Amino acid sequence: MHIRIFFIRANNLIFPKLKSFLFNLNPPIYLKLKKIYKRIKQNAKSKIASSRKVSIKQFHALSEKLHSNIDPVNSNKYYCCDYLNKLNLYFESYNDNDGKAVRFCCGVLDKLPGSQYYATAEETVNELLKNYNNIVAESKMLSLLGKTSANGIRKFTSTCAKCDLFQLKDWSGSDGLIHHICLNMNPMPCQSRCIYCDNNIFTKETIKDMHLHPENYKRPFDVIDHLKNNGMIADSTTWNIASGEITIHPFKERIYNLVGKQAAIYSSNCFIYDKDIAVNLASNPNSCIHLSIDSGTPKTWKKIKGANNFNTVLDNLRKYSESCIVPGQILLKYIILPGINDNSEDYIAVVEIMKSLKVNYITVSCDIRGKNLRNEKQSKALIKATGQLLAELKKNSMTYSFSPSFFTSYELENASIFADTIS
Q1: Is 362 within 8 Å of 332 (Cβ atoms)?
Q2: Same-domain status, 158 and 189
Q3: What whole-number distance in Å separates Cα of residue 34 and Cα of residue 96?
């Protein structure tokens, strides 16, 4: 039986005037909260920084007292995102490196919400639940107060508020269970040397250490076992096996056992064909294998991946394709690198590869590291390169989507416009 301990729902209660209901829960605290918020707003442009700082601390202290009373409220319209609403968990490391080894999203912002590892898996899970509840409760509370932006006084959602995916809308429908788990722990082995990847250094010493001292790498697995044993993972959960290369991972058997027959997205370089992945593809129509192909020719593939095995990779993709039971289980991505893989030869060839695999959809992306560093000239080059690929895809009735957080909004808009002008 599922244990829904993330928050308590009161589905039989209807509160048409949520602010009045919140007032009735604890009138003195609510009125103090309103008063302090007004003072914070008045002091926002004041030079008396210390006064404003004290007010914000008082606001946070009082708001936490109200948190326990907010969860039962049928207040479904507030700021949140799909990652939080579906309780996604992203395991980013085996040991703590920045205090957020397990996160609720995979964003690139600093101080992403999540938890460090504690002495036991139970402690880690409890901390995750506490942080999750604080995020949702604060967001609901600010919405009930009518202060939906309120970026200056956010405590638990200050990082979330900087993300475009954090949106104000009706977030009803969550069942309080985890619906997505990403295994992205580093270090992870990979025999590819992609020129845009910061995680492509994996020494033989590290691999040896993982074999000799597996206890140093067991924390994420202990946490997941605890979640499973306590019914916190939904039957419909999707697993994302990301970072590094799963087919050569020292713990791949344990990872495969965790996934079982549930849906999984295997991010692979496809250097090696793995029968276990093929079996999962054949047993679950929601499973897929994901390759960042980034080229259409062996020459460009070698430039980007550092390996002369393009035809082997295509053969392995065809083998996986034979195990697929529905269209869409082969996912391709094209990371555009202006001056390297943005030529017509690669664009035409990758479309032909898609046709041979019966794939009619591809994700168009770029190097995330340059998003906030690109000058005007580089941005225009990316727009042109992206538009040319989109035009080739449209010409052959292929569909696509962007990795939205990798491009600026200006680049996305103008790449689409340019594609239409040359199609």
Answers
A1: yes
A2: no
A3: 38
Domain extent, residue 93, equals 18-170
Q: Are residues 34 and 122 in the same domain?
A: yes
Closest CA to 275 of 222, 327, 218, 316: 316
CA distances from 175 to 11, 158, 230 (A): 12, 25, 15
CB 266 within 8 A of CB 288: yes
Q: How far is CA 115 from the centre of its chain?
A: 15
More confident residue, 25 or 288: 288
206 within some domain: yes
Last residue of a domain, one of 119, 135, 170: 170
**CB atoms closer than 10 angstroms to residue 277:** 25
The whole-angstrom separation of Cα 193 and Cα 200 is 6
Residue 113 lies in a domain: yes
Average pLDDT, the chain: 82
Residue 238 sits at φ, ψ, to 5 deg, of -105, 135
Percent of the chain with pLDDT over 90: 51
Q: Is the pLDDT of residue 74 over 80?
A: no
* 36 and 159 share one domain: yes
Let me know whether 332 and 205 are in one domain: yes
In this structure, the number of other CB atoms found within 10 A of the CB of residue 340 comes to: 17
Q: At what angle do helices 344-356 and 376-395 cross, to 10 degrees?
A: 40
Beta-bridge mates of residue 168: 79
pLDDT of residue 289: 98
3-state class of 366 per DSSP? strand
Q: 0.85 exceeded by the pTM?
A: no
Helix (H, G, I), strand (E, B) or coil at 299: helix
pLDDT at 360 over 60: yes
Residue 288 backbone zone (phi > 0: left; psi -120 to 50: alpha; other: beta): beta
Structure tokens belonging to residue 182: 């990403």
Distance CA 121, CA 119 (A): 7
User: pLDDT at residue 347 above 70?
Assistant: yes
CATH for 268: 3.20.20.70
Question: Other C-beta atoms within 10 Å of 363: how many?
Answer: 16
pLDDT in tens, 239-259: 999 878 999 988 999 999 999
pLDDT band with cut points at 50, 70 and 90 for residue 346: very high
